[in-house]
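Dear H.,

Thanks for agreeing to be a second pair of eyes. The structure we're designing against is below in token form, covering all 128 positions.
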């Protein structure tokens, strides 16, 4: 993964106990966390990124609410468009989803996914 031009990627040492120090990790996957501004404290990591060089099968369980948040709508569309295959990444922030954000919220969710895809040289519409 090339990384993001505006953020220095770092790890959260207080959570290191949750990361196995030995064993095997899936080949071809990259995972990181960084601060993107969702949380006020710049020391808190508030964005998690998972990237796969190869396309993956994926499944998700979403809310049944008719007024679901924009990221849910975007992720559903990606999964439906690929029939659960061809997914390269997952972007997750630590904020609460506001469900009625209209076209601006939908545009922001798409921009978040597209930014990740551009930064990782990933095919378009392959990020949840």
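And this is the sequence the design step returned. I haven't edited it by hand at all.
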């Amino acid at each position: 993964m090339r990384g993001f031009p505006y953020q220095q990627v770092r790890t959260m040492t207080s959570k290191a106990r949750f990361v196995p120090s030995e064993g095997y990790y899936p080949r071809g996957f990259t995972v990181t966390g960084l601060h993107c501004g969702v949380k006020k404290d710049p020391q808190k990591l508030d964005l998690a990124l998972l990237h796969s060089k190869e396309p993956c099968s994926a499944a998700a369980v979403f809310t049944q609410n008719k007024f679901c948040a924009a990221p849910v709508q975007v992720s559903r569309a990606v999964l439906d468009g690929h029939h659960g295959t061809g997914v390269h990444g997952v972007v997750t922030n630590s904020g609460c989803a506001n469900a009625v954000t209209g076209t601006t919220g939908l545009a922001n969710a798409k921009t978040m996914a597209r930014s990740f895809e551009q930064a990782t040289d990933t095919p378009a519409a392959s990020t949840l």
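Two observations from my side: The first helix runs from residue 70 to 82. The chain has a mean pLDDT of 84.

Warmly,
E.
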